[in-house]
Amino acid sequence: MCDKKRLVLMSCCAPCSAGAIRQLADGAIPGVGDFIVLFYNPNIYPDFEYQKRLAEQIKYCEKLGVKYAVGDYNHDAWRECVRGLENEPERGARCSKCFAFRFAYAREFAAQHGYDAVGSVFGVSRFKDQNQVDAAARGACGEIIYMPIAWDESLRQKINHESEFYRQKYCGCEFSMRK
Ligand code: SF4
How far are the Cα atoms of 47, 83, 125, 179 from residue 42, in angstroms, in the given order? Predict the structure, then answer.
């Protein structure tokens, strides 16, 4: 009997997710079989920046022939979620809320579409704290398994080097633009 998990991989952008998607497409992640890339990033601001990151993500998924889904771009709801935390530093309380907001969506998506597990590349950037991402995910994923996967950083960098991805200069929200 096959006990491989069906994984929802949450992605924030193509440069961060390139290696992880390649590994999953190659079947190189133990315990994971079927997977889908979920682009749910209502934190990204403004709209044209969101569209650029989304277009790049779709282009990469289609190049590799992997499944993907796009969540709602409900930035107003995200703003409401982080209300009062606008001046928090990156890696602070606003980021924990932001991660939890997106993981909660992934949990619903997984439950509705028959996936067992959720993972993400939210901790890939050197500006992020993987422990913070993991804590937010564990709190938000509920009955869905959270899989904190150690992605191959050298593969990610190699693909980035060979690709002409659009590379953003800030994490995503309007508050990270000031930094
Ligand atoms: S800095 Fe990044 S992780 Fe933190 S709240 Fe803004 S978009 Fe979310």
Answer: 9, 14, 18, 19
> Is the pTM higher than 0.85?
yes
pLDDT tens track, the chain, 179 positions: 568 999 999 999 999 999 999 999 999 999 999 999 999 999 999 999 999 999 999 999 999 999 999 999 999 999 999 999 999 999 999 999 999 999 999 999 999 999 999 999 999 988 899 999 999 999 999 999 999 988 999 999 999 999 999 999 999 999 999 65
- Cα–Cα distance measured from residue 18 to residue 11, given in angstroms and rounded to the nearest whole number: 9
Query: Two tokens at 1?
Result: 């009997």
Cβ atoms within 10 Å, residue 49:
17
Rounded distance from Cα 120 to ligand 1 centre (Å): 14
Distance 138 CA to ligand 1 centre (A): 18
Sheet with 32-39, edge to edge strand ranges: 68-70, 32-39, 5-10, 117-120, 145-146
Q: Is the CB of 120 under 6 A from ligand 1?
A: no
Distance 26 CA to ligand 1 centre (A): 30
